[in-house]
Amino acid sequence: MNLEASKQPGKLATYTAAFIILAIAILGNFYPELFVAQSGSFQLFGNLGILLAIGLVRKWKHIRAILSVWTFVIMVGLLMGLMVSKSIATSYLALLLTLAIVFYLTTFSSSVKMYLSES
Known about the structure:
Layout: H1 3-6, H2 11-30, H3 48-58, H4 63-85, H5 90-107, H6 110-117
Helix pairs in contact: 2-3, 2-5, 4-5
């Protein structure tokens, strides 16, 4: 096993963001009532989340910028939904927290930026 490859700065943060995106996409597909009532349909990433997680792991060129914009738009939409409904569910707060982590990692983390810019 190559010890140098496992100690690359930003690798753990990148894989954490990919895991969070993959978990949100899978949970949204298998448990559609997790974030909304039974009558609602709610998907943040859908099957696109799986593709975005693969892009992070495979270090696609513009994946960092795409994820930053996408998670920001989703977070703004969720916050607007919270303001309109005026009821806060625990699952909504957990979702906002995980999206905030992904947004921070893909936007402001210099180690993730360095890891994704390596060839």
